[in-house]
């Protein structure tokens, strides 16, 4: 009996299984599956922590139940909160606080958490398309803040900023429009336009940002009353205990300073001698930070694919460490911008991005885990804030140094140091 060799079916034949996936395709598929699995597992853990938090009745989630829900009920009546010392946000923030209305079959708290998770998923998807390292930093870094990101409105704001930066290279007008919208939600996303390449691109980005911000302000001013009421509350804010100035004053309490902590303007702030001077010093430092950024912009000569990303990260770090607040949710912004930087091989901010991870973990220890110690200014609470704020200050200084060196150095020196031009 003669055995005949059966020829393989040609590719494309109806009974053919087709070619196997190439090795790079299999690797990419596994990476995607791992990222999706990591995101799903960590976010389920964050949701469980939020549910354990007395099912949202107090603690971290209490702000959504009380403050956000109160604002929502005022906003659906067509008016921004008036004479409310806790309302300190630009009018675009109303878009986030009203967004749970899109899910009427859920409670306000449930819908708010879904909105946050959707924004989180958008960030993860956008980062994954741009660079897997950045996506993993975001996926693994956000849970370091425990359940806090799910009960604050900073993730949607960060999503707008991340999308603006990722769009900057190919779609500058879109990037500018997103930055303008983000600025109307929480101001800081406007810093994403700072590092736009000079010339036509800068004009396109900045013009688009101004136009979108103005358009959104006009629409909100037409649809709601008291759109600018938040401005009344900004000047009255004091020194919050989590800030650099607050940490210094808390340390002074250990040496006999006669101040105290008081809950006002929706936060725990310090009151007593030298608090006003400390608040003014923070404002001066913020002004100096702005001056440095403008000087960098004037002196910068070399732009890479990462310069706009690095500049935004450095700018937000500077304004974070000079702030009178530095709430734990500020780390959401920094994690998002750090992740964007890691999507580019040309970034100068890789070591700085890694510093944000332990800073986020320490922030979670400070709030909510050991917040009583932070408020009371115990040695443990002070040590936590010194470590956290020390990391942020160090990160800001290193970030600015690396940004300046990469973009203002002579061309030959930049090539020798390995920075692409």
TrEMBL record:
Question: What residues form the membrane-spanning segments?
Answer: 32-52, 105-128, 175-197, 204-224, 278-296, 352-371, 377-400
- State the compartments where it is located: Cell membrane
Question: One Pfam family this chain carries?
Answer: GT87
Its principal location? Answer: membrane
| Keyword check for Transcription regulation | no
Its membrane topology: Multi-pass membrane protein
Q: Which domain of life is it from?
A: Bacteria
Q: Which UniProt keywords apply?
A: Cell membrane, Membrane, Transferase, Transmembrane, Transmembrane helix
Q: Which family does it belong to?
A: Belongs to the glycosyltransferase 87 family.
The protein's name: Glycosyltransferase 87 family protein
Native species of this protein?
Streptomyces albipurpureus
């Amino acid at each position: 009996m003669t055995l005949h060799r059966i020829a393989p079916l040609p590719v494309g034949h109806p009974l053919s299984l087709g070619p196997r996936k190439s090795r790079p395709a299999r690797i990419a598929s596994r990476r995607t599956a791992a990222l999706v699995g990591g995101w799903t597992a960590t976010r389920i853990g964050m949701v469980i922590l939020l549910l354990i938090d007395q099912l949202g009745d107090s603690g971290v989630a209490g702000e959504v139940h009380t403050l956000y829900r109160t604002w929502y009920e005022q906003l659906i009546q067509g008016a921004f909160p008036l004479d409310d010392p806790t309302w300190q946000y630009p009018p675009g923030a109303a878009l986030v606080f009203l967004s749970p209305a899109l899910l009427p079959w859920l409670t306000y708290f449930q819908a708010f958490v879904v909105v946050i998770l959707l924004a989180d998923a958008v960030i993860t998807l956008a980062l994954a398309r741009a660079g897997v390292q950045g996506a993993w930093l975001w996926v693994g870094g956000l849970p370091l803040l425990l359940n806090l990101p799910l009960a604050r409105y900073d993730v949607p704001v960060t999503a707008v900023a991340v999308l603006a930066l990722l769009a900057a290279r190919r779609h500058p007008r879109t990037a500018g429009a997103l930055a303008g919208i983000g600025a109307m939600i929480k101001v800081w996303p406007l810093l994403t336009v700072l590092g736009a390449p000079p010339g036509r691109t800068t004009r396109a980005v900045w013009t688009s940002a101004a136009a979108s911000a103005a358009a959104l302000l006009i629409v909100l001013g037409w649809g709601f009353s008291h759109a600018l009421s938040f401005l009344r509350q900004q000047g009255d804010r004091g020194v919050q205990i989590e800030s650099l100035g607050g940490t210094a004053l808390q340390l002074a309490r250990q040496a006999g300073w006669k101040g105290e902590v008081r809950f006002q303007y929706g936060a725990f702030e310090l009151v007593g001698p030298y608090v006003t001077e400390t608040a003014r010093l923070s404002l001066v430092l913020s002004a100096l930070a702005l001056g440095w950024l403008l000087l960098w912009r004037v002196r910068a000569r070399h732009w890479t694919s990462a310069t706009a990303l690095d500049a935004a990260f450095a700018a937000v770090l500077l304004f974070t460490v000079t702030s009178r607040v530095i709430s734990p949710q500020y780390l959401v912004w920094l994690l998002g911008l750090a992740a964007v930087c890691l999507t580019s091989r040309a970034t100068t901010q890789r070591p700085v991005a890694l510093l944000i991870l332990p800073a986020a973990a320490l922030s979670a220890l400070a709030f909510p885990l050991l917040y009583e110690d932070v408020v009371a200014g115990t040695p443990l609470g002070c040590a936590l804030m010194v470590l956290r704020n020390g990391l942020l200050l160090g990160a800001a200084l290193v970030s600015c140094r690396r940004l300046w060196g990469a973009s203002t150095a002579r061309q030959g020196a930049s090539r020798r140091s390995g920075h692409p031009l």
